[in-house]
Amino acid sequence: MTVYDKPLCYDNPKNMKSAIQNLKSKMGRHNMDTIIRNYLKQIKVGRKQSHKNLSLYPLLSAYSSGLEYLLLDEALSENLMEVAELDNDGSVPELKVVNKSPKMILILDGEELVGAKQNRIVNTTILIQRNTTIVIPVSCVEHGRWSYDSPSFHSQERMMSSNLRAMKTEQVNYSVRASGEFWADQGAIWDGIAEKADRMAAPSPTGAMAAIYD
What we know:
Elements: H1 15-24, H2 29-42, E1 44-45, E2 49-51, E3 54-56, E4 59-60, E5 69-71, H3 72-77, E6 81-85, E7 94-99, E8 104-107, E9 112-115, E10 120-122, E11 126-128, E12 132-140, E13 153-154, H4 162-179, H5 186-199, H6 210-213
Parallel strand pairs: 5-8
Antiparallel strand pairs: 1-4, 2-3, 6-7, 7-12, 8-11, 9-10, 9-13, 10-12
């Protein structure tokens, strides 16, 4: 199954055609043609939404692909998923995820996982198969702590800010091209969090990104 780490976003309805063409190169042509054809049958362009110098046109559709999955927060709150350190010693760029649900679970790029030996953010969007245990690539967002405060991770329903996420995504994309691994530049992430915390006067004794949101 192919996983995409970027959503479809359009600043103008005319851009949809080029976005679809890009997707065709990533998926089987016949499969994608069918999905697009069914989707376009019901799609409507919504009213323009503007804020300052940014305008967006929402794409509205009642079409459903029939793909059933849970989101990270749903799965954790219903105890259908467990996220923990790789082992007792832990590994900064990796976490173990156990999907105990009969449904797939979608974890989004930049979602924060809080607890265990240090808080992390997910390096790419991942769709986890039902009843599966996998190891996922993550980055640390709390460089001053490396000790357990809970046996596993939970969610505070937070995402890494868009500018830091864009920086991380660029690093991850480079890593994928160079080595096939979804790693980020950990030092650059820590520096970016520290700079943002300074600007927002949000100090943290452990350098936690969470302080920016508190």
